[in-house]
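quick one before i forget lol
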Amino acid sequence: MEVFFYLVPAIMIGIAGCGAVLVIRRSMRVSRAWNSGLTAEARCLRTYTTTSGGRGDSAVHTTLHHVYEFITRDGRSVRFEEGGGPGTIVEGDIVTVYYVADDPQQATARPPAPGRLAAGTGCILAFLGVFILVAIVFILVAHSMFSIEDGFFGGDGFFGGNDVPGEGDFPTGDDFPTGDDVFMEP
């Protein structure tokens, strides 16, 4: 049963770590596209929404997605999808996209805002870091509780193992002061 107190938080730490990696990759991809200096005019081909949540007491979260198509400087036609874009862009609109020459599929239509990107990434990473730290503390507390339990009820040390009344940790009648050994002030 103890294994669950180690395994479940470890899995949660792994998931949070994967989330942190994904957030960093997304941030680097967008930053790389902005810093490449390559832009193109893209047409919005399609917009659609996806929803998540709504079970029980959870709120419904809706994400707007756009599908764009543009032509790179070397003449390739590229189509990509981006989630979380503005609701003011509708099918048929022309927008400026930023892309990297060697990977135009990773383009973005978001206007450059490096400060906002850094702040958003930092907040998400801080949250995930606190989450991981809490899970680690939980594992350490569970471990110390199980270690104390082993000592109390078996194993070695405090009230366990070779502890026999009259020997070791248990006090006996000879361990308490009596008669002249007791010092009392008037």
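fyi The two ends are 57 Å apart (CA to CA).
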